[in-house]
User: Which sequence fits this backbone?
């Protein structure tokens, strides 16, 4: 069995501006990275899933080791003027994280806020993001990192 050190995915943030007036009001801030924690990889492939509520589970040949895990957390905020805005959240279908020449795929991204909604003046909304890490059989140990794009479009 191979022990993998803390595996986490750093979040990159981007948002599409709908108008110059709205861009002065809307902000998206990353508060916490998506963190899959530590695990042991066995002779068969498996997965580690971190849900939007913070629950962690594994399948196949992956054994979880006590460590810090967390869904990513973002704050979507609207300023005090300019009215309410309609927003659309998009997360990737998959990304690859690496440790040197070794890699793993993260997929099945999920988020808590409705993907399409309205944010009123002077309000903010927390958005939690979970995903599934696909661990290969006898995956090489290391600190695996990467980035993903979470896009918020608004009108």
Assistant:
């Amino acid at each position: 069995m191979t022990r993998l050190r803390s595996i986490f995915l750093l979040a990159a943030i981007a948002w599409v501006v709908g108008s110059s007036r709205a861009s002065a009001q809307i902000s998206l801030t990353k508060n916490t990275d998506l963190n899959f924690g530590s695990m042991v990889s066995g002779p068969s492939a498996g997965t580690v899933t971190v849900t939007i509520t913070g629950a962690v589970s594994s399948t196949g040949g992956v054994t979880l080791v006590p460590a810090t895990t967390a869904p990513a957390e973002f704050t979507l905020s609207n300023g005090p003027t300019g009215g309410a805005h309609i927003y659309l959240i998009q997360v990737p279908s998959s990304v690859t994280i690496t440790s040197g020449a070794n890699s793993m795929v993260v997929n099945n991204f999920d988020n808590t806020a409705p993907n399409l909604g309205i944010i009123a003046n002077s309000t903010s909304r927390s958005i939690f993001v979970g995903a599934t890490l696909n661990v290969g059989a006898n995956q090489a140990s290391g600190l695996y990192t990467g980035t993903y794009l979470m896009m918020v479009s608004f009108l």
